[in-house]
Design goal:
Layout (H helix, E strand, L loop, with lengths): L24 H10 L2 E2 L14 H12 L4 H9 L5 H10 L4 H5 L20 H4 L51 E5 L5 H8 L4 E5 L3 H14 L3 E4 L3 H11 L10 E7 L7 H14 E12 L8 H13 L4 H17 L3 H5 L2 H10 L7 H7 L9 H9 L4 E5 L7 H4 L2 H7 L5 H12 L3 E7 L3 E2 L2 H10 L1 E4 L9 E4 L2 E4 L2 H16 L2 E2 H8 L3 H13 L3 E4 L4 H20 L5 E4 L4 E4 L2 H26 L4 H21 L4 H11 L20 H16 L7 E2 L2 E2 L3 H25 L4
Parallel strand pairs: 2-3, 2-5, 3-4, 5-6
Antiparallel strand pairs: 1-9, 6-8, 7-8, 10-13, 10-14, 11-12, 15-16, 17-18
Helix pairs in contact: 7-8, 8-24, 9-10, 11-12, 12-14, 24-25, 25-26, 25-28, 25-29, 28-29
Length: 725
């Protein structure tokens, strides 16, 4: 008998945080553009159903060249051909569309010692010629409330020439409305709200998580509302605040469900479908992440045992997470026939046993919930059809490159399938997929290959991690593959140049001398590996919101262990920063603000000059004294911070930067070291190095100093480009 609101339902964990990038509207728009769709509901729509997908595939093939095993083998045999030869061929055939889009035959990113994958298959990148990529529409940054000029409308009777007055790219600032159902800790929801001009609503029926998310939402000042309603209560709330008959501009452009459908009962599934049917605007997108078959088939018996153990055991709820694994191990040790016929359960057991303690709650989330349903993709399509939704494409950029996941023979076989749903379902058998991220829409306007290409060329990209952190490998459904080192070294060097500032795909192609498909596919690999992101335009409001969000996060991190996800207004996504790095950023930003305040007040308010000079003298004395004594005077620092809190800072321009040179770098590193040590010491927070906890103060100081040096010498430039510092 369930006598508690959350009995049998486990969500108090960070399983959602790893998906912040997939939930980003920028990422959604990128997927839509690759697949040949636009997410602007103010334009004319082509209803998703009934599209002649085979005809569309032939159109793409005509302009982008069919993928074939022969072209890959040719590419591998001739991988030594110079890029210059491609450019010369392009110039000779300037009127040839294939040449304009780049030579596809020298396109693989793989070394010849690994199975060939043609990542430059433009069919995969800009709308796979297969049914699965005919409709894609969830993550666009384009707001359905935007009213384009007539010049933006493309005539189907001639090759379009793009003459947009407004920026034709991903990353233009657009207002939109975004609803997330089941947001976990709310990290993704808050980061995306802080880095946008949009209206966000989040709902999670766990009140503790709703309160946690609301705290961060209020800190940023973004347009965000957080509720802990049941789905039925949320439907009633929307009925009263928006209304079923409301005009489209009041409805949602995005409705996001990550892992929700797999862990709710039929009744709640129907309520969600009603919410989507009533409050997703025409042309709006639904992001749906869910467990799927056939990938889960081998684990379902084990999951049933876990669930029964959770139901009948008498351990404390948290202990059941570990004890159910121990129980399953004892069961398999008895060698039941089930185990003999399904030896993969031994591998599954080892995976569960080897999970680090920080991820043990994953077991509860995935296996111990009261409601748990696994879907075939085709069944999910039927279910969402009740809300007038049609499948568009995957929400993961790497999924547009089928050769990463499926053999050439498999792709050739799939290309014989006309029905897009049947084809997409078969892909799951090739991959043995167990989790899908799909984009559905209530109709979606298709764009031409030319328009998609132009939009991508104008789109800016940037690194979100240091170029030195890339290992020249890619994780795919076919395993880990080695990438062409020369190509990626060149690309990373370009993206890291000019202090990591964003660069358009057009600029990248010019500088790298790669073809369009080569550059495009390589950047998608970097995004898939968490190395890069689309970059958006930034204005004063967004900058102010993300600064406020990060300032609150950094303050929380200095007092207790908090989230590792920091908001970047430029990448419009969450960037992972360690606890120490966040406090380094806090200390550095404070020094920047003090320096800016000092300079501006000296210039504009001579009457307070003496006070400011005195204040900064005290600051310098405090830092020097702390460095000499080895202990930072936290009380003195708190007093200084209190005095500075009343001084208003300019929130429009990017933060001023300290001028770091050889004379003051070591002093700054020492200051950051002492700052972090002073925050961690009273809390008994200790660093870990090579798997070992550092116990002594001297060991911790040495490790913090090493990290501070890395922060100043390497990472600060990147974090500045991301507008975090």
């Amino acid at each position: 008998m369930q006598n508690s609101w959350n009995q049998g339902y486990y969500t108090d964990l960070e399983v959602y945080d790893g998906y912040t990038h997939e939930l980003s509207p920028l990422n959604i728009d990128l997927n839509l553009t690759i697949a040949g769709f636009d997410c602007d509901s103010s334009l004319e729509y082509t209803e998703s159903k009934g599209t002649n997908h085979r005809k569309y595939r032939h159109f793409i093939s005509k302009h982008y060249k069919d993928f074939s095993q022969d072209s890959i083998e040719s590419s591998l045999k001739n991988k030594g051909d110079s890029i210059e030869s491609n450019s010369q061929e392009d110039s000779k055939n300037s009127n040839n569309i294939k040449s304009k889009l780049g030579n596809l035959e020298d396109s693989t990113n793989l070394t010849p010692t690994h199975h060939p994958i043609n990542e430059n298959n433009i069919e995969s990148k800009l709308g796979n010629s297969q049914d699965s990529h005919i409709k894609d529409s969830k993550n666009s940054n384009l707001s359905p409330t935007h009213r384009p000029s007539k010049e933006n409308t493309l005539s189907p009777t001639h090759h379009p020439i793009i003459k947009n007055k407004k920026p034709n790219k991903i990353g233009s600032l657009k207002p939109y409305k975004y609803l997330e159902l089941g947001f976990g800790k709310g990290t993704s929801l808050n980061v995306h709200a802080a880095s946008s001009l949009a209206t966000f609503i989040g709902n999670d029926f766990n009140p503790a998580q709703a309160l946690y998310a609301r705290t961060f939402g209020r800190a940023s000042g973004a347009d965000i509302k957080i509720y802990d309603d049941s789905f039925a209560e949320l439907e009633s709330r929307l009925d009263s605040t928006i209304g079923v008959d409301a005009p489209d501009f009041k409805k949602f452009d995005y409705i996001v469900l990550h892992g929700v459908f797999s862990w709710i009962n039929k009744e709640n599934q129907e309520i969600i479908l009603r919410i989507i049917r009533k409050y997703l605007k025409l042309g709006g997108v639904v992001y749906n992440g869910y467990n799927c078959l056939p990938g889960w088939a081998s684990k379902m018996p084990a999951r049933h045992i876990f669930a029964l153990y959770n139901q009948f055991a008498h351990d404390a709820p948290f202990d059941r997470i570990t004890n159910c694994v121990t129980f399953f191990e004892k069961l398999l040790a008895c060698e039941p026939m089930f185990s003999k016929l399904n030896p993969q359960n031994l591998d599954f057991l080892e995976q569960m046993k080897n999970l680090p303690n920080s991820q043990k709650s994953y077991i509860a989330h995935e296996y111990l919930n009261a409601d748990w349903e696994i879907f075939y993709f085709s069944d999910m399509v039927k279910l969402l059809d009740k809300a007038k939704l049609s499948f568009l494409c995957s929400g993961k950029v790497i999924e547009h490159f089928e050769e990463f996941s499926i053999t050439a023979e498999g792709v050739a076989f799939l290309n014989t399938i006309d029905n897009k749903i049947f084809r997409e379902q078969l892909k799951d058998y090739f991959i043995n997929r167990q989790f899908r991220v799909d984009l559905f829409a209530r109709a979606m306007r298709r764009i031409s290959i030319f328009e998609a290409r132009e939009k991508l060329l104008n789109t800016k990209f940037m690194l979100t991690r240091l170029k030195s952190e890339f290992d020249f490998k890619a994780d795919t459904a076919r395993g880990v593959i080695d990438l062409m080192r020369d190509r990626y070294e060149n690309l990373l060097e370009i993206l890291a140049s000019s202090a990591y500032q964003p660069k358009s795909l057009r600029e990248i192609i010019t500088l790298s001398r790669l073809t369009f498909p080569q550059a495009m596919s390589s950047i998608m690999v970097l995004i898939h590996q968490g190395m890069a992101s689309v970059a958006q335009d930034v204005n004063a409001a967004i900058l102010s919101q993300t600064r406020a969000y990060n300032a609150f996060l950094f303050k929380e991190q200095s007092m207790r262990l908090s989230s590792l996800y920091v908001a970047s207004p430029v990448a419009a996504c969450a960037v992972v920063m360690s606890e120490s790095e966040q406090i380094f950023a806090k200390a550095y930003n404070e020094l920047c603000e003090r320096d800016a305040t000092f300079a501006s007040f000296l210039a504009e308010n001579s009457g307070v000059e003496n006070n400011l000079v005195e204040l900064f003298s005290a600051l310098e004395s405090s830092v020097v004294a702390s460095l000499e004594s080895g202990v930072l005077d936290s009380n003195n620092r708190a007093s200084l911070e209190s005095n500075l809190d009343s001084i208003a800072l300019d929130s429009i321009a990017f933060s001023p930067r300290l001028k770091i040179d050889s004379n003051n770098k070591e002093t700054l590193i020492s200051y950051l070291t002492q700052y972090v040590f002073a925050a961690f010491k009273p809390q008994d927070r200790k660093h870990v190095k090579n798997g070992q906890i550092l116990e002594s103060d001297s060991e911790n100081l040495a490790e913090i100093k090493r990290l501070a040096t890395q922060f100043i010498e390497s990472k600060l430039t990147l974090y500045t480009a991301l507008a975090i510092c």
